[in-house]
């Protein structure tokens, strides 16, 4: 990927938020751990394009748009409140799944009647939805549970307890699960065999059986130690750098770099990979990583499972949310 062809649109919403999500044309902004507000993202984007960006297809390499949360009031749908603080969540098939100190719940946010249903009682630390639609609930008390949301996987029960070791969160490698502790250090890999809608746990590899792997690409992404003086992304992508207006925009999928303990993999050159380490969040462009410094965000989200929003990177800071949208000019 030629970094000169990369186009980035930057939407900033100023305000204080706890978390965010974007799903099926609706923006979910968490005010705090017990309330989430829903906004019409599609209507908002259409209004921006008509007023602020009349020729969006002739974009500059960067476009910086800033709003205050009050400016989104015309697109407000409703607010959902929760009796206990929500620790983690995801949205799947128009259902909002979340965990509190009491268990794993689901609610249909777009429904007029908000009925919160308890799916599994327990004290869970984190939720993780895989690209293959598997859901893992991590617990520091009881380990790793899987809750089956669909009939894609044939099991006699909705929940399986895969491992009892205290687990803060997990990472996915296909069907395999890498367990991590509170320091985000991996300590065990659960290996699965999948055939004809059946899952079988075949092996548990402890940390002393895990080895650091190399990722490969046909071009020279710099995946080695971070530079002593890395280039800041927002310094590199200057508003004075115009693009060629004759090109066609193609979405650039944004994903996290596979974990170093996963087996060797060939990286897709059409994907913009992220790697969080040391000084912040690195975007691996060609042979030089670009840095989003740690003081510029407290949390980030990508949407590589989404067809519409796979080119989004959302950065949450103490006083705003930054929506970065990446395209390539071809």
Report the β-strand fraction as a percent range: over 45%
**Tally of distinct domains:** 1
**Contiguous helical run count:** 2
Please name the CATH architecture: 7 Propeller
CATH C-level label: Mainly Beta
Helical amount: under 10%
Structural class: mainly beta
**Shape type:** globular
Sketch the major β-sheet: 6 strands, mixed
Write down the overall mean pLDDT. Answer: 85
Point out poorly predicted stretches. 50-60, 218-228, 236-246
Q: Write the CATH fold name.
A: Methylamine Dehydrogenase, Chain H
Q: Using the CA coordinates, give the radius of gyration.
A: 21 Å
N- and C-termini, Cα separation = 11 Å
Total beta strand runs: 29
Short description:
By secondary structure, the chain is mainly β. It is built from 2 helices and 29 strands.
Explain how this protein is built:
The protein has 330 residues and is mainly beta. The protein has a single domain, classed as Methylamine Dehydrogenase, Chain H, CATH 2.130.10. It has two helices and 29 strands. Strand 8 and strand 9 form a beta hairpin. The longest helix has 11 residues. The chain starts with 5 loop residues before the first strand and ends with a strand. About 10% of the residues have low confidence.
Describe the SSE topology:
Layout: E1 6-14, E2 19-23, E3 26-32, E4 35-40, H1 41-51, E5 62-68, E6 76-81, E7 88-92, E8 95-100, E9 103-107, E10 117-121, E11 126-129, E12 135-139, E13 143-147, E14 159-163, E15 169-173, E16 176-180, E17 186-195, E18 198-206, E19 215-216, E20 231-232, H2 233-236, E21 249-251, E22 253-256, E23 265-266, E24 271-277, E25 280-285, E26 288-293, E27 299-302, E28 312-316, E29 320-329
Parallel strand pairs: 1-5, 19-23, 20-26, 22-24
Antiparallel strand pairs: 1-29, 2-3, 3-4, 4-6, 7-8, 8-9, 9-10, 11-12, 12-13, 13-14, 15-16, 16-17, 17-18, 21-29, 24-25, 25-26, 27-28, 28-29
């Amino acid at each position: 990927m030629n970094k000169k062809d990369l186009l980035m649109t930057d939407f900033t919403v100023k305000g204080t938020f706890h978390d965010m999500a974007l799903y099926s044309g609706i923006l979910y902004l968490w005010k705090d751990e017990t309330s989430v507000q829903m906004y019409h993202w599609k209507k908002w984007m259409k209004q921006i394009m008509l007023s602020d960006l009349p020729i969006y297809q002739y974009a500059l390499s960067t476009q910086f748009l800033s709003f205050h949360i009050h400016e989104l009031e015309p697109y407000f749908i409703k607010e959902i409140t929760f009796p206990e603080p929500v620790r983690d969540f995801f949205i799947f098939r128009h259902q909002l799944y979340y965990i509190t100190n009491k268990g794993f719940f689901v609610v249909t946010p777009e429904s007029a009647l908000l009925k919160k249903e308890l799916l599994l009682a327990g004290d869970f630390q984190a939720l993780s939805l895989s690209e293959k639609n598997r859901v893992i609930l991590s617990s520091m008390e009881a380990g790793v549970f899987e809750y089956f949301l669909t009939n894609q996987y044939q099991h006699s029960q909705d929940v399986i307890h895969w491992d009892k070791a205290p687990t803060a969160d997990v990472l996915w490698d296909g069907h395999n699960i890498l367990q991590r502790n509170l320091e985000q250090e991996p300590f065990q890999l659960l290996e699965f065999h999948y055939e004809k809608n059946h899952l079988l746990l075949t092996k548990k590899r402890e940390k002393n059986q895990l080895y650091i792997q190399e990722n490969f690409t046909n071009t020279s992404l710099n995946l080695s130690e971070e530079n002593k003086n890395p280039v800041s992304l927002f310094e590199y992508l200057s508003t004075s750098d115009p693009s060629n207006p004759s090109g066609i925009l193609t979405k650039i999928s944004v994903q996290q770099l596979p974990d170093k303990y996963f087996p060797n993999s060939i990286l897709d050159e059409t994907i913009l990979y992220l790697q969080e380490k040391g000084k912040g969040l690195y975007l691996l462009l060609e042979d030089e990583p670009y840095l989003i410094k740690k003081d510029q965000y407290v949390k980030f989200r990508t949407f590589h499972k989404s067809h519409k929003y796979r080119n989004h990177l959302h950065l949450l800071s103490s006083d705003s949310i930054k929506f970065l949208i990446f395209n390539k000019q071809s």
